[in-house]
Amino acid sequence: MFKVGVIGCGNMGEAIIKGLIEKAGINSTSIVVNDINKERQNYIVEKYNVAGSDIRKVVNLSEIVFLVVKPKDLQDSLESIKDLFKENQILISVLAGVKIEKIKSIVEKPLVVRIMPNTPALIGEGVIGVSFEKDTEKKQEIIDLLKGLGEVFEVKEELLDVITGLSGSGPAYVFTFIDALAQGGVKMGLPYQDALKIATQTVLGAAKLLKETGEHPAVLRDTVSSPAGTTIYGLHELEKKNFKDAVISAVETATKRSKEL
């Protein structure tokens, strides 16, 4: 028997495998994986020293199964294995927009858990929204596993769309902001690579300061904003361009799109 099975070894599937081994303390020999692309499966097996097998054996031999396929492949993936699940198994779905109710209509026996991780999970610094089909004594065990990918936030299932709009899409907003900071540096004379490093470290340092102090963002912002100084002039320009409104609208629009999907 294996502790964990992973069906789908793309970027997020690999992030899960890496996080389980490096952060959650799961022995690589306790993980079995499957991918429709056998070259990809073999690559993951060799890189992480995990076992590889066909999809039915992954389900039959694992306590916890991560389903990390594309939403459009849900039906085909589960139809081939639905008869193998047992009452004491856990199925963790990483399929965006696919509700627990839909999964349970195909597989009845396992406890179904939905998660919504974002791309920084690839380096163990992600945000993972999680919703459980029902309360379970295994909840803490599952949350501890997911901490290998980053910080875990349990929410009602209907709020996973908000997690998608905020943290799922959020890295793209941050990357755009970092690039804009760097481009501003270039406009004022810095080489792009230097400006990009400075902008990246600025955002990283500011985020760490916010996290470690626990202060409200406005408090830390005001500590930088000297009367008639450079920062308040810059902030005024952001306000004139409706910077905050644009970010709020981005999260709102992405959340609505997630619900549509």
A few lines on this structure:
By secondary structure, the chain is α/β, with parallel strands linked by helices. Helices cover 52% and strands 16% of the residues. The protein is built from 12 helices and 8 strands.
Low-confidence stretches: none
CATH topology of the largest domain: Rossmann fold
The DSSP helix count reads: 12
Following the backbone from N to C, one meets helices and strands in this order, namely: EHEHEHEHEHEEHEHHHHHH
Work out the count of structural domains.
2
- Sheet-strand content, in percent, reads 15-25%
CATH architecture of the largest domain: 3-Layer(aba) Sandwich
Coarse shape: elongated
SS-based structural class? alpha/beta
In spatial order, strands of the major sheet run 3-2-1-4-5-6-7-8
Assembly status: single chain
CATH class of the largest domain: Alpha Beta
Q: Describe the sheet with the most strands.
A: 8 strands, mixed
> Can you identify the CATH superfamily of the largest domain?
NAD(P)-binding Rossmann-like Domain
Span of the ends, CA to CA: 36 Å
Instruction: Indicate the mean pLDDT.
Output: 95
EC number: 1.5.1.2
Pathway: Amino-acid biosynthesis; L-proline biosynthesis; L-proline from L-glutamate 5-semialdehyde: step 1/1
Domain Pyrroline-5-carboxylate reductase dimerisation: 157-261
Keywords: Amino-acid biosynthesis, Cytoplasm, NADP, Oxidoreductase, Proline biosynthesis
